[in-house]
Design goal:
Monomer. This protein has helices at 5-19, 112-123, 179-189, 231-241, 246-266, 274-294, 302-318, 361-364, 371-385, 396-417, 425-446, 452-462; strands at 35-45, 56-65, 72-80, 91-93, 104-107, 126-128, 131-135, 147-149, 157-161, 165-169, 172-173, 200-205, 215-223, 228-230, 270-272, 322-324, 336-339, 349-350. It is α+β, with helices and mostly antiparallel strands. The structure holds adenosine-5'-diphosphate (ADP) and the ligand O=P(O)(O)O[C@H]1O[C@H](CO)[C@@H](O[C@H]2O[C@H](CO)[C@@H](O)[C@H](O)[C@H]2O)[C@H](O)[C@H]1O. Adenosine-5'-diphosphate is lined by residues 150, 152, 154-156, 158, 166, 168, 196, 222, 224-225, 228, 230, 334, 337, 351-352, 354.
């Protein structure tokens, strides 16, 4: 532990407690933060060494109580005597004691001088205290050019370097390799072109070079795909212009299948036993009970939805084994990048393989049926359909748009891997229901005016199976 870091946390603690809950990536909103304690501190650039008002850069891992027990948050703090006007909004506070007393401590990712320095560290692999900087063999890293912090609504923070590369800095870090690094590295080394290949990464801990279980993944540098937009924006644009999105949905189905095939070839797979399937169904039912307790609008459908999960248990007891493999874990239209324009993409690029950040790492890294991802994307078509001009969740045109694009996506999936996901209707329905239940809770907490979108899906999923909006496999 660095001299002075503990005193920095002590004297800056009240200001950090004030600042943390206002960050988009802070997960524990709503409950007061009682304590911020230091897990590790590294001086990446000691304050005062550069001379002439040069900033210092501190890397911290902190635990925020009562929210994080095993996990912690990654903070990159800049230190300057005074902040130039453009950095004024980045100020966190001024320590009242210790070696940094009176200096301005601020969010370093907003300072191009410091994010430029991070890129330089990634260019030269090595260690710095507990930090390990690694670079993929033969990877070309961009020149140090105009870094900017992305302003997206994100679970993490990303810095773009001159439209050439993007560095994602993970905010909640747990012991173990982050699936985003693990999966994109495995896929790109396997020759899959549908993910941005990691160019370099950094971690904290005992990692010997390859990402391993002894370290916490802290950040990944990947090529920046300039001239792309995410699938959510492209679908909404097609809806607004009245253009047909089904060719793009079909291509997205093909991409998903290719990524799944790549993951199954590059990483271990397994089969789920009857007990595993029963446990999965029980977890789904547990999440439904928790969501019903929190959102009264879900309660009338509880019994019918429990039947959907029961059908999964029955399926598990009838089929000898269900194939499982590593999956994306949080797939929706916002996680697919395609060309910005009206051109139908030949292939999409999938991003953000972290899985649902709120789930424990071990659960996110466990092999699962591919239906988990497929269901996530199917839900997304429902969501997009509800944004159609003058459309509501109940309007016929919105339902038709969703059904056509869901069917095109499944058809594209079947085209690329020979297996139509609609054939596994019970499995798909259970995963879609689980996702819709999650969304009910998510919308109730974050966007109450959107609650009706997942609720309309809940009504459909609670109705007898013939009400499914996916056309039969022959469509
Ligand atoms: N390789 C990339 N090229 C271009 N844009 C990207 C790339 N990776 C991410 N983005 C953009 O950054 C945003 C946030 O990335 P994402 O991986 O979803 O972060 P988070 O995990 O913080 O949600 C995405 O919505 C996308 O617009
Ligand atoms: O941003 P994350 O990837 O962490 O995901 C969370 O936010 C998503 C919304 O931004 C939310 O996705 C839901 O809304 C999307 C449209 O905004 C839709 O495309 C998705 O299908 C729907 O699930 C996601 O559930 C939540 O975890």
């Amino acid at each position: 532990m660095l001299d002075g870091s503990s005193s920095l946390i002590r004297s800056l603690g009240p200001q950090l407690k004030e600042w943390l809950p206002h960050q988009r990536w802070f997960a524990g909103k709503g409950r007061p933060l009682t304590d911020v304690s230091l897990v590790a501190a590294t001086e990446v650039l000691p304050y005062g060494t550069g001379g002439g008002g040069a900033p210092g850069l501190l890397h911290l891992l902190v635990r925020a109580r009562p929210h994080e027990s095993g996990g912690c948050y990654q903070l990159l703090l800049g230190v300057r005597e005074a902040l130039p006007p453009e950095l004024a909004p980045a100020l966190i506070g001024r320590p009242s004691a210790g070696p940094l007393r009176g200096t301005a401590v601020y969010e370093a990712l907003r300072d191009p001088r410091l994010t430029g320095l991070l890129l330089e560290r990634l260019r030269t692999p090595g260690t710095l205290g507990p930090l390990r900087f690694r670079r993929e063999r033969d990877a070309t890293l961009p020149a140090r050019s105009s870094p900017r912090l992305l302003d997206a609504e994100q679970s993490n923070s990303s810095v773009v370097y001159g439209n050439a590369a993007i560095l994602k800095v993970f905010r909640r870090v747990e012991p173990g390799v982050n699936p985003e690094l693990e999966l994109t590295l495995a896929l790109s080394r396997h020759g899959c072109s549908h993910v941005p290949p990691p160019l370099a990464w950094f971690a904290a801990g005992v990692d010997g070079g390859e990402p391993g279980d002894g370290s916490r993944t802290l950040g990944i540098l990947q090529p920046y795909l300039a001239g792309t937009r995410d699938g959510w924006q492209l679908a909404l644009r097609a809806l607004a212009k009245g253009t047909d999105f089904t060719p793009a949905a079909r291509a997205l189905g093909r991409t998903t299948a290719r990524v799944h095939t790549g993951l199954a070839e590059a990483l271990p797979t397994c089969t789920l036993s009857r007990t595993d399937v029963e446990r999965t169904a029980q977890s789904m039912a547990g999440r439904l009970e928790a969501a019903s307790a929190a959102v009264p609008a879900l309660r009338p459908y509880r019994t019918a939805l429990l039947d959907v999960f029961r059908a999964l248990t029955v399926l598990g007891s009838r089929r000898r084994a269900l194939p499982a493999q590593r999956v994306h874990g949080d797939l929706h239209l916002g996680q697919a990048l395609g060309p910005d324009g009206d051109r139908v993409p030949d292939g999409w690029t999938l991003i953000d393989f972290e899985g649902e950040p709120a789930r424990p790492l071990a659960e996110r890294r466990a092999p699962q049926p591919v239906e988990r991802d497929i269901a996530g994307m199917l839900r997304s078509f429902d969501y997009a359909a509800c944004q159609a001009p003058a459309a509501g969740p109940h309007s016929a045109s919105s339902r038709e748009w969703a059904a056509a694009n869901r069917a095109a996506y499944c058809a594209g999936y079947a085209e690329a891997c020979g297996r139509d996901p609609r054939e596994d209707a019970v499995l798909l329905r259970a995963y879609e229901t689980d996702k819709a239940v999650y969304e009910v809770l998510y919308e109730a907490r974050n966007r109450p005016s959107w609650l009706e979108i997942p609720l309309s899906a809940i009504r459909r999923l609670a109705a007898p199976p013939h009400a499914s909006p996916c056309s039969p496999p022959s469509a």
